[in-house]
Amino acid sequence: MRIAFMGTPDFAVPTLDALLAAGHDVAAVYSQPPRPAGRGKGLKPSPVQQRAEAAGIAVRTPLSLKDRDVQDAFAALDLDAAVVAAYGLILPPAILEAPRRGCLNVHASLLPRWRGAAPIQRAILAGDAVTGVTIMRMERGLDTGPMLAARETEIDEKNAGALTAELAGMGADLMRTMLESLAHTPGIPQPQAGITYAPKIEKHEARIDFGRSAVEVERQVRAFAPAPGAFILYAGERIKIHFAEVSERGGAPGTVLDERLAIACGVGSIMPVLVQRAGRAAMSPAELLRGFPIPAGARLE
Question: Cα–Cα distances in Å, from 16 out to 23, 86, 93, 150, 172?
Fold first, then answer.
C-alpha cells in the first residue's frame, strides 16, 4: 500500500517502523520542523524525522498544511492512505480527502474518552483504571472519526513515560494488522456517551498542590514523569518528584513530616522515592537531603 506517514515524537516512531517492516511503500514522511534544543539551542530534528532519514525516506516539515502548494504536493503523492500518529498539526479538508482510503490516526486513548492533545496524562490524572489505543479514520472534528480498531491495557502504577511507550507499541501493532483488512473495515461511529477531552498540558499543572489528597498528588507525579516533572518549591529552588508512594500519615498540607521527606497532603501524605534538583541527576531523598537540607516542619510551596 502506498502511504504517507505523519508523526513527530517518540510515540510515533514504532508505527513508522511497523509500516516499513510490513513492506508498505512509504512515499513520504511529514513531521514538525526541527526545534531548538540543548544548551546551544541548535535545531534538532524530531525523532520521526531522524528515523525516516536513517531509513532513506524523504521528509517534509511544513509549518502548516493550509498552503495550497503544500496541499498540491501532498495530493501528488497519489496515496492509498495516510497514517498519522501524534503529528501535531491540524489536517485541513484537502489533506484529509486526498488519500483514496483516507487518513488513519493512532490515538492514545479508548475513544470517545480523552479526545485531544494529552490523553495519556489526563487518564492518569483522572485515576482511570484502563486506557488503550484506537485506530480511527480522521475527519474534520477533534478526534471524532469512526473507529476501525481498539485495544486496551490497565494503567496500574505506570507513569506517563512507561504508558506512552507501551501504547506506542500497541498502536503500531494494531495499525499494522488493521491495514491488512482496511478494505473490509468500514469503521464504527463513536458513541455520544462518555465523551471527554484531554487539553494540552500547561506548565503550571506540574506544580504540586498539597491541598489535594495524597492519592491525587501521586497521580500528578506519575502523569508528569519523566517530563516535565511534577515539582515543589523550597528556598527558591525547584525540586522535581519523579516517583512517590502514598501514606495514610497526616499533617498540615505541604509540611515535611520527617527526615525522610514525607510530605503531608490534604488527605494522607506522600513519600518521595526519586527526586531531582535543577541541573542535577535524579537521586533518592536521602541523597538530596545530604546536600540540600529540608528539615521536618518545613513548609513546601
Answer: 11, 12, 23, 18, 8
